[in-house]
Write a structure and sequence with these properties.
583 residues; alpha/beta; Rossmann fold; Aminopeptidase; 3 domains; nine-stranded mixed beta sheet; 18 strands
Length: 583
């Protein structure tokens, strides 16, 4: 399906964007081997819809190699945050695209290897010059071969060559922190080669992506910008009736709802499978339903075709309260922000209520036809993530453990007793290759307990890790209920032998309220003492969301001095008695 707006709509809207009203900023460079006129405007409009002000550099037509290899080029002067390198099959394969069988198998393999080496050289040259993230497209595998139906009978034919190029490209950068692949071949498959590639436009101006579908491609690009800026959503709040199953449990009963292997119940089984796949990659699930609690829970616990079980939901609000009140309780219970939420409900009245009362919550407009639910959910770019960490995969389990902590808290007379019963243990280590992706993720996403809210990409953190003027550590928190994973980060800049500056100090909302931050700071102080440091200073940069950290510095005996808070290392500092620390 084509994007709802035309390219002309995007071009018109782009000229009306007021950047000063947008909170996030990003510099994007587009280098391409083919014509992409209008893509810049599409990206600007799509970014603005997410509160992002985008400054975009468009490279010269098919000059990507020259611009990357010339460090004095306007491309480098632009200093992009993220680069999109768009290459195409005809450009890379040139004459072999049409006459592949004129070469021997050895020559064809050598050709593919040579082309991969050329791309590797360009990418490696760029990453040696810049910390920017670079996203490169793979190649579209055409549906037609010059050799027609005999293509698959050829030894190492054209399609196999292109496929090997794509596999090698992906293999080379699978573990890279700075480089990612945009699957252009899948994009073409999704919308159809005959739709994406318009011969009239190609021969007129080397337009590889039809003007009609250029907005769709812009959407693919924004999928990478969202996680780059840490704007990925992390909680899916779900209605029940006519959302997770067909029908209304209060009217149709346990045996009357539509859920099972036969239509129309099979569409809801499929939808639940897609939701569970999101959960397994780190999306928190919650229920927000107007229903009789016992009736709905019986479905969840006992229905033979329920894919989603009670343990998959970190918060369950099944009552007769309005949906807005329930969402507020969910974010309070899970200790996350409203801007972390995606709310799915088939009822248009509830959609509009939540959108108007809680504008931070993303409320998609579900299709009328439930058979389209699964496809629709899979296309929500708010869940896009460049990398899925170990903590992401364990998030559902961690929030289930949080339920048990909350239950303990309600049966304990005071906070100190509760914290003692938790058997808290924190482990502090220096950042390494294993922890780097999660550390970057925390720095990009953490808003509430974050002193300075500075944002760093993996490549930037890696440079600091290898710089002796920085001291960077992460915190892993465990208790009697389980492992919370990496939940805290600090970055110390050593301004001199006597003065350290806290550049970054943050804690995940999952472990707030347990004095973990005090344990982190005691560790930093002890390390400072070992190196005869006299002062530790820090700024507190207030935002709309980091109020929970505003008293941290004065509570740790920092004194205000101009723009900074200063702590004298010789000062006495008490360590929380209920914390066990391992460094």
């Amino acid at each position: 399906m084509n994007y709802e707006k035309t390219l002309s709509d995007f071009i018109n809207e782009s000229s009306k964007i007021i950047d000063k009203n947008l909170k996030k900023k990003i510099k994007i460079a587009i280098l391409s081997s083919y014509t992409v006129n209008g893509l810049k405007e599409v990206i600007r409009v799509k970014c603005s819809e997410y509160g992002i002000s985008s400054s975009i550099y468009e490279g010269q037509y098919n000059q990507y190699s020259q611009e990357i290899l010339d460090t004095d080029s306007n491309f480098y002067k632009f200093q992009p945050d993220i680069v999109f390198l768009l290459i195409d099959t005809r450009n890379i394969f040139d004459q072999i695209y049409y006459f592949s069988d004129s070469k021997s198998i050895e020559q064809k393999k050598s050709f593919v290897s040579e082309k991969i080496s050329e791309i590797n050289h360009l990418i490696n040259f760029f990453t040696d010059q810049s910390n920017a993230t670079i996203i490169i497209t793979n190649l579209n595998i055409p549906t037609n071969s010059p050799y027609g139906i005999s293509e698959l009978k050829l030894d190492y034919g054209l399609l196999e060559m292109i496929n090997e190029f794509n596999l090698s490209l992906n293999s080379n950068y699978k573990k890279s922190e700075q480089i990612a692949i945009l699957d252009f071949n899948s994009f073409v498959s999704k919308y159809g080669e005959d739709n994406i590639f318009d011969p009239r436009q190609y021969f007129f101006g080397n337009i590889q992506i039809s003007i009609k579908f250029l907005p769709n491609f812009g959407n693919e690009i924004v999928k990478y910008i969202i996680p780059y800026l840490g704007l990925t959503k992390k909680c899916l709040v779900l209605d029940l009736d006519n959302t997770l199953w067909g029908g209304i449990v209060g009217e149709d009963g346990f045996n009357g709802i539509k859920l099972g292997p036969e239509p129309p119940g099979n569409v809801f089984v499929e939808f639940q499978k897609i939701i569970l796949s999101l959960h397994q990659r780190g999306i928190i699930l919650a229920i927000n339903s107007k229903n009789n609690f016992d009736d709905a829970m019986q479905i969840i616990k006992e229905h033979p075709y329920m894919v989603l079980k009670e343990e998959h939901f970190s918060s369950i609000k099944i009552n007769w309260n309005d949906k807005v009140s329930n969402i507020k309780q969910i974010v309070e219970e899970l200790n996350i922000g409203l801007d972390s939420i995606v709310f799915l409900d088939d009822d248009k009245v509830n959609q509009e209520l939540v959108k108007s009362m809680l504008p931070e919550v993303f409320v998609p407009k579900l299709p009328e036809d439930p058979s389209l639910y699964s496809k629709y959910l899979q296309n929500i770019i708010e869940f896009s993530n460049l990398r899925i960490t170990k903590e992401d995969k364990q998030r559902g389990k961690m929030y289930a453990q949080q339920k048990m902590r909350n239950e303990l808290a309600t049966t304990t007379p005071d906070l100190t007793t509760f914290l003692k019963k938790l058997d808290l243990k924190i482990t502090i280590k220096k950042v390494d290759a294993f922890s780097l992706p999660r550390v970057s993720q925390l720095i990009l996403k953490t808003n509430q307990f974050n002193l300075t809210t500075k944002r760093y990409q993996e490549s930037e953190i890696e440079l600091m890790v290898n710089d002796p003027n920085f001291f960077i550590g992460y915190v892993n928190v465990k208790d009697k209920f389980g492992d919370n994973g990496i939940t805290g980060v600090f970055i110390i800049k050593k301004e001199s032998k006597k003065i350290w500056n806290i550049d970054t100090f943050l804690l995940s909302c999952r472990v707030m309220g347990r004095d973990v931050e005090k344990g982190m700071f005691v560790y930093i102080v002890n390390e400072a003492k070992k190196q005869n440091v006299e002062q530790i200073k820090s700024k507190f940069i207030p935002t709309q969301k980091n109020k929970p950290v505003e008293n941290f510095l004065p509570n740790c005996n920092f004194k205000k001095d101009g723009d900074y808070w200063v702590y004298m290392v010789k000062s006495k500092l008490s360590f929380p008695e209920f914390l066990e620390i391992e460094a």
